Amino acid sequence: MTMERYETVLHGRDVEALDILITIHCAVDNPNILDCTHNTGKMWKKSSYKPIRMDIDALFDLDLVGDFTNMPFGDKQYDIIVFDPPHLPIAAASKNSSKIWEKMYGITANGDGREGNNVSGMFLSFLKEARRVLKQDGIVLAKIADLVHNHRYQWQQVDFINAVREIEMTPCDMLIKCDPCAGNLKSSKWKNVKHLRKAHCYWIVARNSKKCEVKKQGN
Ligand SMILES: C[S@@+](CC[C@H](N)C(=O)[O-])C[C@H]1O[C@@H](n2cnc3c(N)ncnc32)[C@H](O)[C@@H]1O
């Protein structure tokens, strides 16, 4: 059997990115999947996968409310953990912007690390838990976006890779997703920003293993 060799840049949606990454990197056929930042689960629309739906915010339709830095699960339960932390600057919730983004993307102004300006500070505590809850060779699929805050570029994908290495998991692949249907957020604070507008995000694969590639079980 020959497998299609997908490219690193996808002009498409998260659901397609998830399909590709699960096909290439997951070693089992019917993976046990945890989405630990589920929100309304937009990224699973039209997906054939049905993850366990967890979020810290009880507002959403979930299987359970939980914190990805202290997960309510025993060890080695999941083949895949999907991680999509808040990734919009709090400017998206500024006075003249549409407040809808606050809830949709989980950004808060509570000082609880969910401000979205830079969520890198949560990566290590998330990954410690992910490594515990993942089976051997299981994967984290992390949707990470760099952003500009206070006129400074926030290198969140670099911070994420560094955290994966620090925790002794293996960063094994990356897909750049450019969604042609992505919204163009408006904020009065962004008029004077002298950086390019982000038109992409990264899907990073981190494996709970020293190995980068694993064979499909049964092959
Ligand atoms: C960008 S949204 C996720 C969107 C989701 N992937 C979708 O497709 O609809 C980020 C989510 O992370 C959640 N979140 C933030 N901090 C969290 C934590 N410590 N534990 C679990 N969920 C958290 C927020 O409540 C928010 O719903």
Number of alpha- plus pi-helical segments: 4
Strand order of the largest sheet: 1-9-10-6-5-2-3-4
**What value does the average pLDDT take?**
87
Low-confidence stretches: 91-98
| Distinct ligands | S-adenosylmethionine
Task: Give the topology string: H per helix, E per strand.
Answer: EHEEEEHHEEEHEE
Q: What share of residues is helical?
A: 10-25%
Distance between the termini: 11 Å
The major beta sheet can be summarized as: 8 strands, mixed
Share of β-strand residues: 15-25%
Q: Explain this structure to me?
A:
The protein is of the alpha/beta class and 219 residues long. It has 4 helices and 10 strands, in the order E-H-E-E-E-E-H-H-E-E-E-H-E-E. The chain has helices at residues 14-25, 100-105, 123-133, 156-166; strands at 9-11, 33-35, 52-55, 64-65, 78-83, 134-144, 147-149, 152-154, 170-178, 201-207. The longest helix has 12 residues, at 14-25. The protein starts with 8 loop residues before the first strand and ends in a 12-residue tail after the last strand. The structure holds S-adenosylmethionine (SAM). S-adenosylmethionine is lined by residues 36-37, 39-43, 55-57, 67-69, 84-86, 105-106, 114.
